[in-house]
Amino acid sequence: MAAAPPHVLLFPAPLLGHVSPMLKLAKVLSLRGLLVTFLTTEHVHRRLGADEGLNCHPGFSFRSIPDGLPADHPRSGGQFMEVITSLAAQSPERYRDLLVSHHGQWPVTCAIVDWVMPFTAVGKRLEIPVIAFRTGGPCSFWTYLCTPRLIEAGEIPFPVGYDMDELVRSVPGMEGFLRRRDLPSFCRVKESSDPILQAIASATQRTTHYRGLIFNTGETLDAAELAHIMSTCPVTYTVGPLDTILCALDRSTGSAAGPPSSSSPGWWREDRTCMPWLDAQSPKSVVYVSFGSLTVLSRPQLLEFWHGLANCGHRFLWVIRPDLLEEMDGAGDIPVELAEATKEKGCLVEWVDQREVLGHPAVGAFLTHSGWNSTIEAISAGVPMICWPFFFDQMVNSRFISEVWRIGVDMKDTCDRATVGRMVNEVMEGERADEMRRNVAGLSEMMRECVDEGGSSRIHLDQLIEDIRAMSLETSPAETA
């Protein structure tokens, strides 16, 4: 029997911020000649819509499985851990069947799985190599890896009468700037036995047993944190920004695999009416506002942001997706002064192609939830940030943006109109505005060098593909039958 060609199965967590970068990696691997199967839940598969034409792309296929939740489950915001738990409860045989039976196609010889997904034991049982994809950044992942140290040192749970601005000492390399406030949100628990804290700690430790670990970043951006991570996970690949690499591969191959630039493949309908509006604005005069795909606001929070933007003196483009508000009745009546101010200098849309907007010359700042995808996209575009993190790794990312890379400001745990307006003005026109723009421009150039031919991301991508090909020789059809 002929040797099986390398066939990679990719399995992201069923959330846009996880699906998007892993779909980009899947496209890159397909364009580089590997067979690829992209596994999602049935809910995500429906939201991907037409699959961007990839079902017709040679060597690329989609598969889906039920997530075990009722159809009306929101699968967003604070409920997303329920999705992961439900998937973990699925029968191991279901995953086994996906790995060993592909209806006449070549069997899977390597799996790349989201680090939070319940896949490790099945892959190990079938002797199929498993590589983890960490969809967040190295800076947050290192704090996740240090969770046992934080617990052992008594730094989490926080002691009685704690000061949120006190520095933590149990994350090596971050002792001089990381505060309790900046730890991942799952650290804000009352007991070390908290189930979410324990689940995250357990999933993070499992990552150390995979055959490798992938980050969507450039090596030079996160060199210090990567050095710490590689002491525990020595086989680590930095292959980002993936959208930039994908654009380059599409141009070089003339691929028809679909537009690579979108940050939200089929998730919501992108509203392009904002582009002519942006075209009419002066360079660097617009604040772009988006809180990603999971953040939810209360109506008072929405109004504080809205007043702050209306009063700050700058034009703004704000993405208000359909499920942004906690309340089911939407924004309700909007105060007259806000409606008038928005008519004069604002533009509201439900969803946009974020990379395209950030790359527009009219955009001067990004008010963001500090998700890793948004952070990397802003850095690549050279746009400084105003950070209002919502949960998990976003708390760490925003601290790095403000205090390490010095490319923005951090307003975590605060939501009032005066602070919003002050911080927007600080980034747009304050004393440090030019410094932040210079810093982010420097990082943008650094990221471009990483993805250029001979850059670290291209080298790591080549190594990843070479290692996948080598792993495929370890797994024959006979062994997985």
From TrEMBL:
Classification via PROSITE patterns: UDPGT (PS00375)
Pfam family membership, one: UDPGT
The EC number(s) this enzyme carries: 2.4.1.-
GO terms for MF: quercetin 3-O-glucosyltransferase activity; quercetin 7-O-glucosyltransferase activity
Residues making up the signal peptide according to the UniProt record: none
Enzyme kind, highest EC tier: transferase
Keywords (A to Z) from UniProt: Glycosyltransferase, Transferase
Keyword match Transferase: yes
Keyword check for Lipid biosynthesis: no
Family, per entry: Belongs to the UDP-glycosyltransferase family.
Protein name as catalogued: Glycosyltransferase
